[in-house]
Specification:
single chain; 317 residues; alpha/beta; Rossmann fold; Alpha-Beta Plaits; 6-stranded mixed β-sheet
């Protein structure tokens, strides 16, 4: 478990973080979510023992990170926003070097290296100089150096930063694999990455935690209006739009059905609702013998929650 209590960081008279208190349980994947400059990177660097806090306490696996940072570093793998790579070294040599820095013996590194190369899908380029790699491959090498010593906790600062859409999907899949055997803490301002990757969220703003919990827990508040989009393949009937709209209007929880538009061979309807009634919408469409093409939230709940929590706040550095 990671436990932080009244954690703060000041640069001179300027507060960059805190005070913040939170816990991360073993096996969780937790996302630090916030605007650029909200204090996410500062918090992660403190947890990784890369930066000393100005005040407060941190425990990682029961070890005081301020009093015994070297012991904590053995338990944590850290991927900074800019991975610490030596571009003139080959991937294998660099990972061997990274393992030895973490106190691994030569035989331990030799045994662990093939596993790490397989996990990060770097086996085919293991002998290549890091300087010849694309940005996406360099990010994988950054993850590889973070897990070479098989730490219990992983801290990933903006792991998808600068990646193209294909590389983002690959990194997301890699993180999902890592979740099976590590407790993971991820920092990002990309809402979809946090939503699709993390079990629980910590929302930061002005250097403080503005909200904590699962996406559903953060989004749950009185009178919230959700938007659901449903795409239905229209029939040949002249009044197909009206027929589908009447079916959707009868669903419990749907307060408004907007005028549809054509998309992807179907009609896309936006529904205003006061609860998550996607299952009821799906059932109603199928029971009406209509073809359901797609069903989702119009604007993600996480986006609504994020705007509600941090909207209008000034970011810190």
């Amino acid at each position: 478990m990671i436990r932080a209590h009244n954690l703060s960081k000041f640069y001179g008279g300027k507060r960059a973080l805190g005070p913040v208190s939170f816990e991360i349980n073993d096996g969780e994947t937790v996302g630090f979510l916030g605007l650029n400059g909200a204090g996410k990177t500062t918090a992660l660097r403190i947890l990784a023992c890369d930066l000393r806090p100005s005040a407060g306490t941190i425990e990682v696996g029961g070890v005081d990170a301020v009093a015994d940072p070297h012991e904590v570093r053995k338990r944590i793998g850290f991927l900074p926003e800019t991975p610490p790579l030596y571009t003139d070294m080959s991937i294998s040599d660099y990972l061997t070097f990274a393992g030895e820095l973490r106190g691994m013996s030569g035989s331990q590194v030799k045994k662990r290296l093939p596993e790490v190369l397989e996990i990060t899908d770097l086996g085919d380029v293991a002998g290549d100089p890091i300087g010849t790699l694309s940005h996406g491959y360099r990010q994988r090498v950054g993850v590889a150096q973070a897990i070479i010593h098989n730490p219990k906790f992983l801290i990933l600062d903006e792991p998808t930063r600068g990646l193209d859409p294909v590389q983002i999907v690959e990194m997301r899949n890699l993180i999902h694999d890592l979740k099976q055997s590590h407790t993971v803490l991820i920092s990002s301002h990309i809402l979809t990455e946090i939503s699709q990757t993390c079990d629980r969220l910590l929302v930061l703003g002005k250097g403080k935690i503005l909200g904590a919990g699962s996406e559903a827990e953060l989004a749950k508040h009185e009178g919230e209006i959700r938007e659901i989009t449903v795409t239905v393949r229209p029939s040949a009937a002249a009044d197909a739009k009206s027929v589908i709209a009447r079916v959707l209007e009868k669903v419990d929880g749907v307060s408004k059905v907007a005028e549809p538009y054509e998309q992807g061979g179907g009609l896309l309807f936006s529904l205003s609702t006061n609860k998550d009634c996607r299952a009821d919408v799906s059932r109603a469409v199928v029971e009406a013998r209509l073809d359901l093409i797609k069903l989702d939230y119009g604007r993600s709940e996480l986006e609504n929650t994020f705007i509600r929590l941090v909207g209008g706040s000034d970011a810190t550095s």
